[in-house]
# Entry
Amino acid sequence: MEYVSPEGLRLDGRRPMEMRQIRAEIGTIMKADGSAVFEMGNTKVVAAVYGPREVQNRGQQISDKALVRCEYSMANFSTGDRMRKPKGDRRSTEISLVIRQTMEESILTHLMPRSQIDIYVQVLQADGGTRSACINAATLALADAGIPMRDLVTSCSAGYLNSTPLLDLNYVEDSAGGPDVTLGILPKLDKVTLLQMDSKLPIDIFENVMQLATEGCKAVANYIRELLLENTKELEYRRGV
Amino acid sequence: MREQKGPSLVTPGEVLGRASDVKAGRGAYVAPHNSTVYSSLTGFLRTISPPADSPDQRPIVEVTGHKAQGAVPVPGSVVIGQVTKVMARMASADIMCVGPKSVREKFTGIIWQQDVRATEIEKVDMHLSFHPGDIVRALVLSLGDARAYYLSTAKNELGVVSAESTAGATMVPISWTEMHCPVTGQIEQRKVAKVGS
Amino acid sequence: MLHSKSFVKKSRAGRVTKVVREHYLRDDIYCGASICKVCDSSVARLSASASTILVLDTNVVLNQIDLLENPAIDDVVVLSVVLDEVKNKNMAVYNRLRALCSNSLRKFFVFSNEHHKDTYVKEMSGESKNDRNDRAIRVASQWYQSHLGDEVRVLLITNDRENRRKAVEEGIFAETVESYVKSLGQPDLLDLLVQPASEDVDMAEVEDLRPSKRKVIYNEHKPMSEITSGLHRGIYHQGKLRVNRYNPFEAYVGSESIGDEIVIYGRTNMNRAFDSDIVAVELLPQDQWHEEKSLSIAEDEEDEEDVHLVPSSADDAPRTTLPQQDSSRETNPVSYRPFGRVVGIIKRNWHSYCGSLEPMPMPAGSGSVANALFVSKDRRIPKIRIQTRQLENLLDKRIIVAVDSWDFLSRYPSGHYVRTIGEIGDRDTESEVVLIENDIISRPFSAQVLACLPPLPWSVSPIDLSNPNRMDLCHLRVFSVDPPGCKDIDDALHCSTLPNGNFEVGVHIADVTNFVFPGTPLDDEAAQRGTSTYLVERRIDMLPKPLTEDICSLRADVERLAFSVIWEMTPEAEVISTRFTKSIIKSSAAMSYVEAQARMDDSRLMDPLTTDLRNMNTLAKIMRLRRIDRGALTLASAEVKFQIDTETHDPLDIGMYQIREANQMVEEFMLAANVSVAKQILDHFPLCSLLRRHPTPTREMLEPLLRTAAAVGLHLDVSSSKALADSLDHALGDDPYFNKLIRILATRCMTQAVYFCSGDLSRPEYHHYGLAAPLYTHFTSPIRRYADVIVHRLLAASLNIDKLPSIFQDRPQLTSISDNLNYRHRNAQMAGRASVELHTLIYFRKRPTDAEARIVKIRSNGFIVFVPKYGIEGPVYLTSRAEKGGGEWYVDEPQQKIKKMDGSLSYSVLQAVKIHMEVVEPQPNRPKLQLTLI
# Structure
């Protein structure tokens, strides 16, 4: 199956180094302390952050740091076929853990001891790259909630099909069975907080693919920063400052 | 302290300066590995010059987020709470405001018998100091234990601020130990806060 | 810009899902014309001088691909919408189109109209997919015309009337294929045209086919929906059709749902299906089973069984039809296979076939279109009707024809002529036919491939000498033993005595992977070819000659690079240690088998080289005995060798291939090297090694052998390979040839050995039955086999000399490579045999001969004989063809005899008879070898 045509176009018309269209919105859920909706192409994810608030389960309280909890779920209608068990299955548990660990690295937890920060992420439309979209949405929601962070965490996926590194795989390209690298970085600090890969890649090609994913993450970071700045300006304007 | 308002907007992770040049205030932190001060919130950047007499002459950079973070009781802050339980040696209260700000979610505080007042702390009768439902102003002593903050009302201006009588009317404070119900005329015992000039 | 494509898909299980995909439109897609000033012309393919640029419709591409491959058609824009449609409908045509587009000599440009912001067309409500695609083609043509301006005419080629009409309305130039080709003024191009099927042309133009006047021969195929529901319900069965090579009216469909093969008998039941089509079959009612003809040699109006080479495996042997039902006997009924008929074709597997036209009287007036019947060389293909203007020219030529369609009202399929190969009977033409039929790639190596070779003259360089991974073994007395006149020497041996009394034996194989690197055009071409093909008069090389005959070949007295396997073994041939290394060797002698044998036999010679040979021989004999003890089979080969006249290249003499001790010695060490390497690579790469296995033959396959043996009172134990080997050893008859004959019969029951990827099968399945080896691979001939090149790479990686190429991590790719190698190996063998048969025919054409023969099989109207001297076998008829059935002869099955009714004469299996062989021509241009009883 041809994923990159000899003319250099992928199945949906992008070139190998191009990302899908990104759109995001902040503050969509009123009740939450911070919330955001993040879209990468047809993948749409909503994140809500509650906290810092008192730890509900006293036994889990950490005396010098905040407790970060994360829950990832997919809506029943998010994929082509209606899903029966959106939560609690292996994949959801794994991704919840992954997102928690990624975000925990960036939140300055020592500033909020004995409290807990809840991140809820739900996938509304799944078209490949849900993990990355969730992390990006969580970052936005955390920034919206005003939780102090070391840096924004951005994430992007890249793969290798038909001997070409491809950026931002969609569902069709993901299901091709080729290698799929998901990368999460702190863009300004240039540090990696998440690196996952399916399948196998020789090390020299892996470096190229990871480099491509890093560039994708930085592009997402620019977009998020722009959005945050604009949003703040808007709020200040409304407050009359 | 003079304030200088800088109109620039920053996002988390943006460099604010070197640790040798600026000091990290609220909303900023110092990265240990390269001694740089980064922002940790989204908001306006403000540089505050230090007071002339402080040994550390570095300006303080602060970032104020637009979302007020829910207030968190910090040792030394004055809080307003509602008493939930009164027992022989302690009373527990739900903290509802920290300073002038109300909290997003209630925190639990405990007032131990010895922290109710400054004098004769052994002989304090809890039931004569607080009743469940009273609004008290207290000082946060410490983070306390896993369950609750430790509060103290051992100052004149701390203690019961408002209370309801058994009849259901709001009582009027008479002295630092008594409150008077206007409807029935009964006097009830409380550790009353001195509100006033 | 982002658009969204959404459509509804139905899965096989019947579930309906909505699919939504993104569709990006771009503004950086260029038109590909070099004259265009706006677009980036670095990707331009269309020539600057073109006055007309063609845009093709999908159906034109699908039907007229042969025409498009002709260089007269150029400056074509292939739209991506057309490309996608072709890909979905016919993968073979798609691949050919892609080859055209990437061929730098042809001016075909692929324009991605689906993603260009000006030419993207969104489906309108109520518009069918085809209409939308047609509209997209028209919009793209119009865009091209307005983009390139008036200097160039953009011409839309379509046979669809509706499309043409709408195009003209919109102001686009449009023509049919026929009118365009006619306008080019090259009449022979018109022959390549496929006549339009009825859907394209308006019905009124087709002649009146009055239904009553046409005999309905075939049933209409059921529509796809009915077939799918039938498959679901289990009334239809799906499988690949395999036509019996020796009886084209008999075919088998292997069906998983039945668990057995369904027999399709008769043309009507085959219902226009071709060999290797995927078909849907309906079972016939039980009372219609066993309707086949008796065990006679297949006779029908056209052909009969041919004289051919002795089969060397079960795959080559004719399929046995069901045993004849003899009501007089009370034998246990053999498991009857179900019979069925084809009700629909799920996937066609049509391609081009070579053969010649059936002789027919010339039509009045030459130059007009004539209908001719094309008979393919491959007997499994039915005759094909074609139209041609060059009938007179083509009658005596071998040509290639492609199939287009087969209407249910037509007796034969319709096709069109593609090209001529040469005259019938001309040896070169027939050789080429053999190559084409067996899909052997024989075109000369392209410039890109030749560019990968190191420059000549080549010699071992200081870099090679200083390579730490390469040992300098020039001090060893290395020699090679090969067939006479062999120039591509890939193996050499050495045998030296060690101070402790043991021997150091080494097998040195040409280091081909030092010159052929993965991913280069040279490597890709070799992988495609898979193996060198040995025809009688020439050799089709896998690698270019400079490599095979000079740089890699371990010629005498020159330093060459090699990959060595070195053993230390005791005088009793027990291996003490094995090591592998890359090396540099200098062969001291390149001998032929005869030479080596003579040296060993001449007791006067005592020089070191002869001593080494004798030592090796002794070791080899011990190793061979050990192998036979373990159960290795020694089967007799019926191979013949031709002596070719050096000038005319005609065969001068043919005779059986002689096996000497020297042959067996070399073979023994090659086997040992292959086994050692197999162990090494499997240890390091248990999941991605390329090995070779030989599946154990099943009892069913051995049936014919057992029956024949039983008829002469011989009992064979086939419980294991060792048991069979022992039985064969003890099978001695009164005449000396008997044992060899039994062995030859055993050979034809064996399956072929195949390559496979170790990750695909479990350990017990790696077994090689014939060699009784638990592990085996091919390592010793990288010059002529690509499998050995792969094993060399695996071995080098296991020794950490080189990195393992990334292809080894892709298991499906590896499996497809090993499948290709098996396919090419098979084809090369068949081509070799066909070439030998061809030369046999040429030899006997001028020399009718008498010879001794042995009967190997009894038929109802005669028997099959084997002629040992020439290694061929063929039918001898006792009754003339006019008499159907047995005539005055009848068959005694259990005794395997054919007896005359009056009891005067009888012939039994394995009996010796004298026959006369000569070449006859029952039809002009169709020579065949005929055997008659003397």
Remarks:
- The first strand of chain C starts at residue 2 and ends at 10.
